[in-house]
Design brief:
The protein is 50% helix and 9% strand. It is of the alpha/beta class and 314 residues long. Strands 3-2-4-1-5-6 form a six-stranded parallel β-sheet, with helices on both faces. Helix 3 (86-102) packs across helix 4 (114-121), helix 6 (143-153) crosses helix 8 and helix 10 packs across helix 12. It starts with 16 loop residues before the first strand and ends with a helix.
Length: 314
Amino acid sequence: MASPSYVYPRGGSLRHLALVGCTASGKSALAVELAKRVGKVEILSGDSMQVYRHMDIGTAKATSKLRGEVPHHLLDLTDPDDDFDVTRWVRAARAALTEIEARGSVALLVGGSGLYVQALLDGLDPPGRWLEIAAQLDAEPDTERLYRRLALLDPLGASRMEPTNRRRIIRALEATIGSGKPFSSFGPGLDKYPPTSWHVAGVWLPRPVVAERISLRLRDMLAEGFVEEVRSLLERPQGWSRTARQALGYRELAAHLESGVPLDQAVVLAESHTRRFSVRQRSWWRRDPRITWYETEENPLAVADAMLRDWKRR
């Protein structure tokens, strides 16, 4: 039986849709299904690692076949030796959004990287990057000491984060020192959820189901040549940026290829790290009261009808 066809409401148009959820929850397949049913929908990738060329298998990037069926944006923006960041992604996303709207189409943002998605939805203006400063800060092993320094330079910014969140502390210090302005001056913080022009929907699967999907997906990636993809990245004369190298699965397989970590052990680590990441993602998204959640026991596509009905009403 053919999928039902949804059209724009008479005299109006659909709002842009942001589809969020944890990794391996089936967001990408669901997004393509929604786009095909609606028509005149173009997909924006909200994945911080899909911006890299030559990192296709391990980031679960849309295949060329899917891109031919539904337009995709924000993929393959740069090479793996580049330390890409949210500031540049937001600029690229806004440019793509302008082009989509000019064509009379609707955007469907598929999000896994919470900071990237929230920056676009809320019109945030993230500070630039000062990579030398970040490297100097990262050389300090004592996270507590870094937090105390941030508390002196930007007490409000420090109060908005956990003293153990090393990555966020370093980012805040980098921006504060590099710009000469407190990190908190760049916005109200990520714990604010102002009204947005987007309709925000989330797909929610039970945690054990997500864990199993992570395991199966990783094994499929290995069968598709994930190890060879990582090997080719390591062999690139241009090198591999610190940001790109931290991608889940890539860093564990790099340890296998460079340091002799047994492959089965590297795979177990990749699964474990990805499961932990999925839990953090769930916690991030669960804080946002603007998200309408669609729960399913196993098949993400099972929520497509309900999600489409709600999208048309908003």
